[in-house]
């Protein structure tokens, strides 16, 4: 392998850094995390002229090398640490032609580290419209570097940039600004103490809050021959340094940068007036949220149904075409349904990130934060938290992923932790069936009790999220930026390529990041549900066969078959009377007999399946936890459903269908069967008002979704937070459900 | 006339006064909040917080509590374009 050049892209946020990165690397990029922390690491490979290859790192956006967050300290550490394997041979500072003054501050700081530094002036396509003219040649001379004027939108200047990178050895590494003049004595003594170190680098190590190189910082502090300064003295020097740098930059821009003021005003001011307006601003944001919600709730159901059906038929195909046995079952029921359970989320994730990246790219997201900051602040949430919280009403998984846009770690963590409280669409089937069972159909002031209960559950979910955010805000001791400064970037038309990369990357990271955990748990759940350690499980077929021979089918199944046959007879006689068919009494009898046999076989299979589940590992677990769930008004059958719901909440319904040996998935049948179920402990209907409300509340609060846990693990880069979520939410759900049942019973 | 950023009306401008050295977060200084620079109040969010300002060509939003700290010399009769 030929030697690769290490290249670091660095720049202020909103300068189109990622667009430059995308144009340099194309699809040869990968996104991961820096080891041990949650900061995203983007890297890629770029082919340069003359057969040179460059390894490019897209560093987190930063306004300067004075870091205030973990993201920014990653950038500084890489630039300072020569031993890092990614330490750049050349740094590229990306700047925006409209904010050149501020962008150059960062440039001069990096240049002073004596790293070869190329300046990219991006968004060159906006120059004409904004009345900007540049003297690039003079600027190159003054800044002592090479400049590439780039437009990622028009795809110009990238080739020149590649040339410059390949040619990096010819770049000057002389510093731009002599900052020692702000405190000559101090810097002199510093340099004398550490004669081998770059002065500017020493200065950075001393002044940073984030302790990115503990050894060196300690070393400097402990050296007695050197007089350290107090914190406020250092800060004063930092301010002087900043002013000094701006003086330098202003003197250069005066000669090289001209802007025609009359051309500058316009679109931004007008759009800001509307989009951040007291009334219209909120109205527009509401419409945007509604559209997002519609997309992930409604539009994505079309591809989701298709995925669901595809996997079900694939699973059936496997069962039909391979010899029956453990392996076939593993593939058909364990692996295939596990993969199906991952793929099913892709439409929602893709839709949500399509919208989010459009909002981010266009510059609108900053206006959302501006509008929502005051409202969300008391809860310890960011203005941006509103998007995950609303998306969580469709599904918590894309919502948790969407928190990536929140820069502040504490606000992001709180959002991640509380989002699963919002009522996701997987809770809906559970709510609907239980509400139908236990809430009367009456109306109050024109509103149905059932509808009101459902609405109340949504409100409870949202309320739980907000309240727990408030509590977490008080409880979590995380050092984070205490002040709030946010740039309001220019409005831009989103680049389709950038949007596509985001959607692709998020989907990929879900499938391969969280997917393997989801698959593993699905297989474990499948194994526990379809294996048992007792003889009863092994001999389920013969036991049930014997029971049916001696006692007949279960009462419910007998009745259901009788009803079915009766209906069939009536329909058949009707058809004969209307002369649709012309068949004799023998044939009628024969066909009724055949249906009877068919229904009997089906019922037998259902009873075997029910018996098997009851005696499987999960069945035994359900029975084992019965003492725990009895005070909540549940029996062991609901206990089993609570455990299987862990795969996804809606599994509750299908598990009960299996346990009650109701074959069809038809809601009406399951509902009737559930209504008939008696609680063996109390001899009252199992699903009554008290136990029903208790179940509803349990499902509202409990953390019963392994996919959410998997994605939280991925997003927080640790098992600590998903584990905390699981324990606290489940405990809270248990207590609330317990209290509700004990009061209502 | 002396006032703070929080007291500006929309579209009004002022020049930042000298302030004590370790007064503002370094981040704000780097974004251009330095003595002598011009500030314009662009927009105020509902509940009067945060404030959207243009300082030294940087369009940024800051919270009211911070804006109250930054004193200005008001530029009178700001031309309304």
TrEMBL record, chain A:
Binding site for Mg(2+) 2: 25-26
Keywords assigned by UniProt, alphabetized: Cell membrane, GTP-binding, Ion transport, Iron, Iron transport, Magnesium, Membrane, Metal-binding, Nucleotide-binding, Transmembrane, Transmembrane helix, Transport
Residues binding Mg(2+) 1: 22
Its membrane topology: Multi-pass membrane protein
Location relative to the cell: Cell inner membrane; Cell membrane
Gene3D superfamilies (alphabetical): P-loop containing nucleotide triphosphate hydrolases
Stated name of the protein: Ferrous iron transport protein B
Gene that this sequence comes from: feoB
UniProtKB/TrEMBL annotation, chain B:
Keyword Iron: yes
GO MF annotation terms: transition metal ion binding
SMART domains recorded: FeoA (SM00899)
Ferrous iron transporter FeoA-like domain residues: 3-74
InterPro entries, per database record: Fe-transptr_FeoA-like, FeoA, FeoA_core_dom, Transcriptional_repressor_C
Domain of life: Bacteria
Signal peptide: none
Keyword set includes Iron: yes
Keywords (A to Z) from UniProt: Iron
UniProt-recorded name of the protein: Ferrous iron transport protein A
Protein's organism: Maribacter polysiphoniae
């Amino acid at each position: 392998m030929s030697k690769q050049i290490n290249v670091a892209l660095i720049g202020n946020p909103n300068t189109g850094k990622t667009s430059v990165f995308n144009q340099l690397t194309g699809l040869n990029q990968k996104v991961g995390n820096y080891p041990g922390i949650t900061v995203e690491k983007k890297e890629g490979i770029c082919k340069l002229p003359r057969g040179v290859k460059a390894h490019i790192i897209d560093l987190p956006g930063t306004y300067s090398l004075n870091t205030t967050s973990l993201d920014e300290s990653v950038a500084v550490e890489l630039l300072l640490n020569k031993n890092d394997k990614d330490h750049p041979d050349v740094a590229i500072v990306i700047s925006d032609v409209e904010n050149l003054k501020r962008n150059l501050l960062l440039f001069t700081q990096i240049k002073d580290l004596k790293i070869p530094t190329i300046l990219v002036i991006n968004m060159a396509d906006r120059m004409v419209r904004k009345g900007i003219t540049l003297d690039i040649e003079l600027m190159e001379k003054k800044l002592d570097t090479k400049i590439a004027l780039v437009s990622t939108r028009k795809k110009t200047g990238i080739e020149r940039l590649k040339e410059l990178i390949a040619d990096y050895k010819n770049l000057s590494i002389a510093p731009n600004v002599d900052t020692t003049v702000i405190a000559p004595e101090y810097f002199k003594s510093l340099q004398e103490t550490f004669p081998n170190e770059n002065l500017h680098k020493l200065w950075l190590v001393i002044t940073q809050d984030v302790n990115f190189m503990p050894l060196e910082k300690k070393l400097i502090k402990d050296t007695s021959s050197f007089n350290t300064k107090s914190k406020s003295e250092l800060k004063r020097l930092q301010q002087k340094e900043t002013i000094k740098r701006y003086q330098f930059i202003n003197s250069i821009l005066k000669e090289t940068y001209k802007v025609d003021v009359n051309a500058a005003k316009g679109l931004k001011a007008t759009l800001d007036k509307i989009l951040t307006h007291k009334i219209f601003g909120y109205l527009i944001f509401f419409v945007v949220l509604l559209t997002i919600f519609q997309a992930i709730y409604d539009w994505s159901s079309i591809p989701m149904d298709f995925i669901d059906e595809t996997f079900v038929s694939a699973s059936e195909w496997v069962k039909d075409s391979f010899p029956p046995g453990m392996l076939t079952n593993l593939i058909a029921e364990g692996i295939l349904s596990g993969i199906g359970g991952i793929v099913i989320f892709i439409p929602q994730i893709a839709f949500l990130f399509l919208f989010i990246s459009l909002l981010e790219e266009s510059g609108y997201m900053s206006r959302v934060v501006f509008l929502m900051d005051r409202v969300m602040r008391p809860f310890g949430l960011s203005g941006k938290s509103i998007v995950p919280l609303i998306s969580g009403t469709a599904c918590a998984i894309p919502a948790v992923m969407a928190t990536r846009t929140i820069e502040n770690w504490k606000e992001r963590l709180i959002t991640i932790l509380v989002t699963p409280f919002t009522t996701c669409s997987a809770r809906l089937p559970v709510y609907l069936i239980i509400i139908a069972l236990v809430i009367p159909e009456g109306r109050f002031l024109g509103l149905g009790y059932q509808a009101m209960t459902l609405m109340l559950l949504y409100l409870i979910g949202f309320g739980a999220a907000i309240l727990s955010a408030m509590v977490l805000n008080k409880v979590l001791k995380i050092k984070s930026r205490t002040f709030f400064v946010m740039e309001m970037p220019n409005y831009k038309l989103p680049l389709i390529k950038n949007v596509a990369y985001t959607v692709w990357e998020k989907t990929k990271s879900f499938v391969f990041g969280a997917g393997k955990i989801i698959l593993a748990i699905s297989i474990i759940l499948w194994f526990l549900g379809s294996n048992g350690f007792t003889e009863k499980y092994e001999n389920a077929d013969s036991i049930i066969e014997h029971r049916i021979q001696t006692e007949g089918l279960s009462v419910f199944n007998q009745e259901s078959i009788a009803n079915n046959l009766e209906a069939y007879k009536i329909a058949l006689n009707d058809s004969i009377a209307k002369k649709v068919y012309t068949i004799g009494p023998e044939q009628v009898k024969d066909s009724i007999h055949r249906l009877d046999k068919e229904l009997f076989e089906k019922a037998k299979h259902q009873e075997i399946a029910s018996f098997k589940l009851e005696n499987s590992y999960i069945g035994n677990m359900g029975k084992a936890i019965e003492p725990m769930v009895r005070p909540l008004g549940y029996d062991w059958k609901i206990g089993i459903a609570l455990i299987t719901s862990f795969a996804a909440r809606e599994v509750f319904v299908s598990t009960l269908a299996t346990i009650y040996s109701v074959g069809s998935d038809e809601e009406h049948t399951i509902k009737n069967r559930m209504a008939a179920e008696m609680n063996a402990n109390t001899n009252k209907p199992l699903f009554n008002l008290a136990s029903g409300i208790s179940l509803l509340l349990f499902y509202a609060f409990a953390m019963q979704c392994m996919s959410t846990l998997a994605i939280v693990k991925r997003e927080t880069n640790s098992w600590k937070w998903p584990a905390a979520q699981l324990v606290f939410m489940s405990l809270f759900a248990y207590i609330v459900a317990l209290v509700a049942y004990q009061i209502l019973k | 006339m002396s006032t703070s950023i929080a007291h500006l009306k929309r579209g009004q401008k002022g020049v930042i006064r000298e302030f004590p050295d370790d007064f503002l977060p370094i981040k704000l200084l780097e974004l251009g909040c330095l003595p002598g620079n011009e500030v314009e109040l662009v927009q105020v969010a509902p509940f009067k917080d945060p404030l959207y300002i243009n300082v030294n060509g940087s369009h940024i939003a800051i919270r009211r509590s911070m804006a109250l700290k930054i004193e200005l010399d008001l530029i009178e009769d700001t031309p309304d374009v």
